Amino acid sequence: MRAILVGVKTKDKTEEEVKESLSELEGLVKAVNGKVIGKLYQNKEVADPATYIGKGKAYQLKELVEGTESDFVIFDAPLSPVQISNLENILMVDVYDRTDLILSIFSQRARTRQAKLQVELALLEHELPRVYGQKGKKLSRIGGGFKTKGAGEKYGEIKARTIKNRIASIKKEIEKIKKQRQQQRKWRNKNPNIFKVALVGYTNVGKSTLLKRLTKRDTFISDQLFATLDTKTSFINFPDIGKKILLTDTVGFVKDMPQEIMDAFMATLEEVEEADLILHVVDVSDENWPKKVEQVERILEKINVKDKETVLALNKVDKVIPSAELLEHTDDAVLSGDKEAVIISTEKGWNIDKLFDILKNKASLEKVGG
Fold first, then answer.
1. Domain containing 123: what range?
2. pTM of the full predicted structure?
3. Quick one: 157 and 198 in the same domain?
4. Considering its fold, how many domains does the chain have in total?
5. pLDDT tens digits for 276-292?
6. Sheet order of strands, 72-75 included
């Protein structure tokens, strides 16, 4: 699959932000085994309502698509149904936006029943506004569709009703699963010997690897965006303090996380709300990591947990510092400021014991204080 990426610098974005976002979009394309053939930038204060980039630029994009024999075009912004339709009529290839791509990755990576339902719900809610006027085109741009026909009714009306019925059915099933999870959390909350830690962070910062290091639990690990989606929970036993630490991994965040994804995976984020401590994992080998920390914190603020006690796990330091000996002379505060932090390498195992001790001490203090 060969793709052209399109980024637009509007009045509320800098050129650097557009390039950073397109770079992340390229990583998302690679996550679905696609190949980026080219990128198109444009300065435009306000997006064109018909084609987002304007008719002239759209025909310039058409030449690029034809010249590179690309299979599709992906815009680093949400597109309206009208914009997609107009662009496809000009370009003669499929057009997707950032949300389409993220939903595609999620549909491929979901493993548990709950995750699959949540992804399907997000796909359908994203697709619903696009159904009318499709005139027989496939329902879901990514992930397949329904094949229903009916005499005397327009195609879009039939599809919309089918989608709405399925959405209602999925929501009921998710609600049942949610109640089961609430019962599990009630048991955990009643147990004074369980200290709950939620792992959060930008996607691909090493949360799954850290979970494996701390708990010795096997988990799928891959160096790509959204390698895992399903919530994973493991225990660490500390018999000497009479405590168990419950570690829960959560879905990774990305810039401009689509609202459909936020809504669908709110069940995963509920684990963060219930946690006694947030362990925010950060990739310090990424030169833009401070911005990504801020983006994660904005999402945590949306679910009202930004003020919850947090420890930063500054990961992938092995890509910055060549040896564990040099790590001993690195001050955590230099990177983290006034936030409590520990510099680690999940790949090399550096300072994992130090993080282990921090979690143990937090759990011990909770026992004394609570």
1. 110-171
2. 0.77
3. no
4. 3
5. 999 999 999 998 899 88
6. 35-43, 2-9, 72-75, 94-97
